Amino acid sequence: MSRRPPGGARRPASARVDYEQHGRTYTRHRRADPRIASRIHAALGDAHTVLNVGAGTGSYEPRDRWVLAVEPSATMRAQRPPGAAPAIAARAEALPLDENSVDAAMACVTIHHWWDRARGLAELRRVARGPVVIFTFELERLPEWQRQYLHEGLVEELPRFPALDTVATALGGRTRVERIATPGDCSDGFFEAFWRRPERLLDPAVRSAQSMWALLEEGAERRIVERLSASLASGEWDEQHGHLRAMDSFDGALALVISEPG
Questions:
Q1: How crowded is residue 81: how many other Cβ atoms within 10 Å of its Cβ?
Q2: CA atoms within 13 A of residue 247's CA, in its CB half-sphere
Q3: Which of 60, 176, 179, 52 has its CA nearest to residue 124?
Q4: Rounded CA gap, 29 and 40, in Å?
Q5: Cα–Cα distance between 158 and 28 in angstroms, integer?
Q6: Of 33, 31, 43, which is closest to residue 106 (Cα–Cα)?
Q7: pLDDT, mean over the chain
Q8: Rounded to the nearest 10 degrees, how much is the dihedral formed by the CA atoms of 34, 39, 41, 44?
Q9: How far is the C-alpha of 154 from the C-alpha of 23, rounded, in Å?
Q10: Do residues 243 and 252 touch, judged by C-beta distance below 8 A?
């Protein structure tokens, strides 16, 4: 979002996606993948009460527990489905909850949007009696072709994603990292989801639900799309990367950072 954070501090240039404008298609193209969801829910352990921070439209929230969602964007809150957990307008950096007020806290594909990641992560640890689960990406582990074709966008994206050990340090406690393989038919439309389906990235509706494109200078998205489209049309992509189409999953960028109280 483009507004300034609490206290008037200037927001970092590396996190300038306005979700009131760019969050309108998330329910169509960013649906929770059940295999990823099962890993997140397992990491929450036996928590009965869960806080979901940067909750967006509700992807990956468990349905069998009491959940409270925190989401600053009215556009995203408005897309939460009927029956979803209640959502309050607040930010990770200033959670309106008491210390140790929930059994667990979670944040899924959101920390790269926060104004102050260290402060937000410390807040999650403050309010959770038990595990804090962060679902994030390690972009250096994207498939080779995405690092090649999406290079202009990844130059903007990489500074937004903290290293996993930085996340672990900010959370404190006893931490571990779990890798998640990206299914070949992943239903959540982040760009690694299409590691064996590159044609899907040519669809502007798919790209509209990926925040990276909103960070690019004018003309960069067109150049990326034209380059990928030409490579697919000529057969170059399949010649170099076609072996991926036969794989069921890809061990790439997806990771859980899990913090238990120390």
A1: 8
A2: 18
A3: 52
A4: 20
A5: 26
A6: 43
A7: 90
A8: -170
A9: 20
A10: no
The b/e string for 41-72 (b: 16+ C-beta within 10 A; e otherwise) is bebbeebebbbbbbbbbbbbbbeebebbbbbb
Tokens of 168: 């672990």
Residue 234 class from Cβ within 10 Å (0-12 exposed, 13-18 middle, 19+ buried)?
A: exposed
Domains in the chain: ranges and CATH: 6-260 (3.40.50.150)
The distance in angstroms from the start CA to the end CA of the chain is 34
- Give tens-digit pLDDT for 126-157: 999 999 999 999 999 999 999 999 999 999 99
Cβ partners under 8 Å of residue 41, min gap 6:
62
Phi, psi of 108 (to 5 degrees): -115, 115
Tokens of 165: 């050990």
Please answer whether residues 23 and 77 qualify as being in contact, where contact means their C-beta atoms are separated by less than 8 angstroms: no
Q: How far apart are CA 96 and CA 98, in angstroms?
A: 7
3-state secondary structure of 132: strand
For the packed helices 164-171 and 117-127, what is the interaxial angle rounded to 10 degrees?
50
Enclosing H/E stretch for 119: helix 117-127
Q: Report residue 37 as tokens.
A: 């969801």
- Rounded Cα–Cα distance for residues 256 and 36 (Å): 10
What is the DSSP code (8-state) at residue 86?
A: P
Q: Is 41 helix (H, G, I), strand (E, B) or coil?
A: helix
- pTM, two decimals, is 0.89
CA–chain centroid gap for 161, Å, is: 10
Q: Are 99 and 126 in contact (CB under 8 A)?
A: yes
pLDDT tens-digit map of 179-197: 999 999 999 999 999 999 9
| CB atoms closer than 10 angstroms to residue 75 | 18
